[in-house]
Automatic annotation (TrEMBL):
Keyword field: Coiled coil, Signal
Domain of life: Bacteria
Cleavable signal peptide: 1-27
Coiled coil spans: 325-408
Name of the protein this chain belongs to: Chromosome segregation protein
């Protein structure tokens, strides 16, 4: 802190020297250039009692110009010309005047607001005391000058004005001097005490003097703008700090988003893990039950073969039925002729009808035997379809879980990539800042603190980058496993869809077969009824003999359609037989494939599911560390914000802009002055004490010019500063 104060005091001293001397401004169209100096008289305790502003003008050939401000009075310090004052404007008409022109303005109360408020207190041997009682006092005198930034001042003054306090102690009249944090220079038997404050900085300057007879010419304070070109680095530093803070905030927001995503994945990963565990158990159950399924499939295939054989056996009966219809029609025609010709053959015909009825009943028994197998067949197909639906549901759940997990992994991978790029950008910016500014810091303690902070941030960035790399690798591995899971799931769906389609086809075949049986049974039933009626007709031949001709005509009418129906049924049964044989061959081959591959499929599913469960378990374990990472992320941002805010709150140095235009003390309407400065002095404490106006430092030197009078105010201070810097260079 002491070193920093000394450096700032040196800078301020250098700033004061060029401010008090005017240069020559150049412009395409010369205008009046002005240097403004505000002289402020303070009482013992730092309260302003009088403010005067001296304006030094380089006319640059102009004889008329206007100044703006709210003034109590305006005094010409160069000649006898009286200005015209109206509505806050002071107009000068200087006929044939050459050289620099000086005039003094006394602003109205409250129109000039200084960037600092000053509060001075005194104590003697540790006891507070009134300043007027210190004249000739003996003991340890302590003077505390408290400077507080004035928030009502113009923002330019608050951001760009530097404060320096200086006083000279005659060591021939003092036994000791103590000024903590000040720059102390010795010139003969004089000690020059210099304090400094940055823009917007609040500070207390403490001066302790041991003396037998105390007196002082007052405390001198100066406020000047920081316009050295070297101070441009301060503005660049402010821009870099703002860039660093923005980047830090981006990293903080991105990291929090990534960590939030990871936390949000926890429930999904837990569900995925639970789902995979269920699939693993289902895979085990399927593996255990496969032998039983294969046994049932053997039985189903055997039954299917029997059904095909029985269906094939029905074809000759259908052909025989066709022949029977031909014969029946022929016999019916012959019978009709016989009945019509004679009734003697009725008994023989009844016997023939009885034989035909017996044949029909036997045929119906065969049909019933076939139908008795349909319930067992339907039950087997239903169980097979139920097992396939269960397997399809399990595969759908696996596919949904894999897809959900894959989407979240893709989001995490994208966030990791974005965050990694931001981390690399911050690391590069930190390296540039450290390389650019650490070399220019002469305070070793400050440099060590900044280097330690830089090292800690780099280590934390490296740790976060390593963690992100591990997370990216884990996401890639998990994504590959999910791709394999998706392929297996899709293949399983294809297999099950094929089996399901085959079963549906088989069911269609059996439905057609059942409908054919029903038609055949109905037809045989009708034929039996016809024969019964025919028998009844024979017994009632006397009544029905007249209707025989009509019956014969009806039989002749439906002969061709009946034969066609039997032919179509034969074709249907032939197709069903071929379909059943093909289905039996396919299911046999499918069963063989399942038997040969069941071990590999079961083991592959088991290994894959166990691997995925392990990966998800490790991912869940990793997510448990997210709160720690979030806490570390908050700590980094909090520390960086705290350190930057602390420096910005202590002062407004980072807002200093050496290229900003100067602002007139009296009015914003005035052009930018070439230089501005504020000189403040507290009331003297001596036997001849009086709060003399510091603008009248040399009242009897009017004939020597106003420049001489102004310079006399600072002549001793300049000599002391030059001597002090000469000692430093040596």
């Amino acid at each position: 802190m002491k070193i920093r104060k000394r450096i700032l005091s040196s800078i301020l001293a250098l700033l004061i020297l060029p401010v008090t001397l005017s240069g020559t401004a150049t412009a395409a169209a010369p205008k009046v250039s002005v240097d403004e100096s505000a002289y402020v008289n303070l009482d013992y305790y730092g309260t302003p009692t009088n403010i005067n502003i001296v304006k030094s003008c380089n006319l640059n050939g102009n004889q008329q110009f206007t100044d703006y401000g709210e003034y109590e009075k305006v005094s010409n310090m160069s000649n006898n010309v009286v200005p015209t004052m109206k509505n806050g404007a002071v107009s000068w008409n200087l006929n044939n005047y050459k050289g620099r022109f000086y005039y003094e303005c006394t602003p109205k109360k409250g129109t000039v607001v200084l960037p600092w408020n000053v509060d001075v207190s005194y104590s003697l041997n540790g006891t507070p005391i009134a300043a007027s009682k210190l004249v000739g006092a003996s003991g340890l005198i302590q003077i505390d000058v408290k400077v507080t930034p004035n928030t009502k001042a113009n923002m330019y003054y608050r951001n760009n004005m530097l404060l320096q306090m200086q006083t000279i102690v005659d060591m021939s009249k003092a036994s000791s001097v103590d000024a903590p944090g000040a720059q102390v220079q010795t010139i003969g038997n004089k000690k020059i005490i210099l304090f400094a404050a940055l823009p917007g900085e609040k500070d207390t300057f403490t001066l302790r003097i041991g003396t037998n007879s105390f007196e002082t010419d007052g405390i001198l304070l100066t406020m000047v703008p920081g316009t050295l070109s070297q101070l441009q680095d301060v503005k660049d530093l402010k821009d870099n700090i703002d860039t660093f803070r923005d980047s830090m905030n981006s990293i903080y927001d991105s990291t929090n988003a990534l960590l939030q995503t990871a936390e949000n994945m926890q429930s999904g990963l837990s569900r995925a893990k639970s789902g995979l565990s269920s699939l693993d158990r289902a895979n085990s159950n399927i593996s255990v039950s496969k032998d039983s399924l294969f046994d049932k499939s053997e039985t189903a295939l055997a039954d299917l073969s029997k059904v095909a054989s029985n269906t094939a056996a029905m074809i000759p009966h259908i052909n025989e039925g066709e022949n029977a219809i031909e014969d029946l029609n022929y016999d019916l025609n012959a019978m009709t002729k016989t009945i019509e010709s004679t009734k003697t053959e009725l008994e023989k015909y009844k016997a023939s009808i009885k034989n035909v009825q017996d044949d029909i009943e036997e045929l119906r028994d065969v049909v019933k035997d076939v139908n008795s197998k349909s319930d067992e067949r339907d039950e087997l197909l239903q169980r097979t379809r139920s097992d396939i639906e269960d397997m399809q549901a399990d595969l759908e759940n696996l596919s949904d879980s894999s897809s959900d997990l894959s989407n979240k992994l893709n989001a995490v991978s994208s966030d990791i990539s974005t965050l990694s790029d931001a981390m690399k950008s911050v690391s590069g910016e930190l390296s540039g800042i450290a390389e650019k500014y650490l070399q220019g810091i002469e305070n070793e303690e400050l440099k060590k603190v900044l280097m330690a902070l830089y090292s800690n941030i780099q280590q934390m960035l490296s740790y976060v980058d390593s963690t992100l790399s591990d997370l990216a690798a884990a996401c890639d591995s998990t994504s590959e496993l999910l791709d394999q899971t998706s392929d297996i799931s899709e293949n399983g769906k294809d297999y099950l869809n094929t089996v399901n389609s085959s079963i549906s086809l088989i069911e269609d075949y059996f439905e057609d077969f059942d409908r054919a049986n029903e038609v055949t049974d109905d037809m045989l039933s009708e034929q039996s009824e016809i024969l019964s009626n025919t028998s009844s007709l024979l017994t009632k031949s006397e009544t029905l003999i007249d209707n025989i001709s009509a019956v014969n005509d009806t039989a002749n009418k439906y002969k061709s359609s009946s034969i066609k129906a039997l032919q179509d049924m034969g074709t249907l049964l032939d197709s069903m037989t071929k379909g059943l044989n093909s289905s039996q061959n396919f299911l046999s081959s499918f069963e063989s494939v399942l038997k040969n591959s069941s071990g590999d499929i079961s083991q592959g599913n088991s290994d894959m599911l166990k691997g995925l469960i392990g990966v998800l378990k490790q991912s869940l374990e990793g997510i448990k560390s997210v709160p720690t990472m979030r806490k570390a992320n908050d700590s980094i941002k909090s520390t960086a914000d705290k350190e930057i805010d602390k420096f910005e709150n202590e002062n407004r140095l980072l807002y200093l802009d050496p290229k900003a235009e100067l602002i007139s003390f009296t009015s914003s309407k005035n052009p930018s002055p070439r230089s501005i400065q504020v000189i403040l002095r507290t009331q003297e404490i001596n036997k001849d004490s009086g709060n003399e106006n510091i603008t009248n430092a040399d009242s009897d030197a009017q004939d020597k010019g106003v420049l001489y009078r102004i310079i006399r105010v600072f002549v001793k201070l300049k000599q002391a500063v030059v001597s002090a810097f000469s000692d430093i260079n040596q």
